[in-house]
Amino acid sequence: MVQINDSALRGALTEIFMAAVKSADPHEALIGALPEKPRGRCVVVGAGKASGAMAAALEAAWPDVDMQGVVVTRYGHAVLTQKIRIVEAAHPVSDAMSEMASMLMMEQVKGLREEDCVIALISGGGSSLLALPRQGITLADKQAVNKALLKSGATIHEMNTVRKQLSDIKGGRLALAARPARVVTLIISDVPGDDPQSIASGPTVADSSTSAQALEIVRRYGIALPEHIIKVLETPRLPVTASDIEQDIRTIATPSGALAAAASVASKMGFTPLILGDAIEGESAQLGIVMAGIAKSVKQHGVPVKGPAVLLSGGETTVTIGASGAGRGGRNTEFLLSLACALKGEPGIYAIAGDTDGIDGTEDAAGAIVTPDTLTRTEHHGREMLAAHDSYSYFAASGDLVLTGPTLTNVNDIRAIIVL
């Protein structure tokens, strides 16, 4: 059993979180999922925060295969490769490099034959990193739509439904361009439910979303779009179906696997782990209140698990930004500040939450840690900072940020709450 003091419990939380991250290491995950080596050409494409590391792992696994290709990852997430070109682009809003990378990939898959193989390395973040606008819209249009979606409170699945209908590479259209070559898609999942259509907006996966669904999402969230963008969404096109492309989809790392790894480490420390789910969505601040209630129930009544315990959960929550704008923060630090405010210094409850890619939103921290004295270690008022969506600033002042740097993988957010 881990020692019961503040420093030891902080260390335990960090170790539990990092166990989840390490479980999704691209080099480990990719080795056992590779197909037979191709008879013809091997072209590698990919997008996401882990795609660079996945490309390096593929080169290491197949040193004797003549391969070429292009993958795009977030700025600061590139690694050294010999055969596969790695392009860095912006996240969470696309930039010119996102568009360039998309065009390069479409060029790479032209003119392939049946004996050729395309390896697609896909991970979370790819939706923003790939940008190939449909005819009638520009990159600036897509950037504006993406910014509006991020502020709307829409789920990742809903955002990607809209993104796919405005793209000529997402929603299976990269695989369509590669016909008749075989396309093998290796996925590190970051979305609730691990739906391959949603991860990076499924550039090599048959798509069931429609323009009507995208329009309904835009209207339901009250997203104001220029008329010419609405016109594009109102122009239906044939979806890419499973009969249109040859699919071989292999999910090599998932949020559920990360939670299982975290639970194993917690158990060895002497805690009883309870996994509450890997696909939890909703507003970050509201989830903080809910999780505080569960943690109090564990402490006071031993329900739904007796302490000492660790409550584990994953998924991707949202932060809806009002017209007044926001301070600095991400969905994990917002969740944690809400949790701290709801716990009101309840003794014996400690928590960590972070994005497994090492970047919570647009800040430089993966997340933060909450302890019983979180609300008393700074002059800032927690509830005021929460209302201003300024959670990063709060935890920076309290010294509780978790700084990992880019982890080169991404299986979404991991939350762990220790209840003594």
TrEMBL record:
MOFRL-associated domain segment(s): 13-234
InterPro entries registered for this protein in UniProt: GK-like_C_sf, GK_N_sf, MOFRL, MOFRL_assoc_dom, MOFRL_protein
Transmembrane segments: none
Record keyword Transferase present: yes
Gene3D superfamilies to which the protein is assigned, alphabetical: Glycerate kinase, MOFRL-like N-terminal domain, MOFRL domain
Ranges of residues in domain MOFRL: 310-413
This protein's record includes keyword Lipid metabolism: no
Key words, A-Z: Kinase, Transferase
Pfam name, any one: DUF4147
MF terms (GO), sorted A to Z: kinase activity
Signal sequence annotation: none
Name of the protein: Glycerate kinase
Species for this entry: Enterobacter quasimori
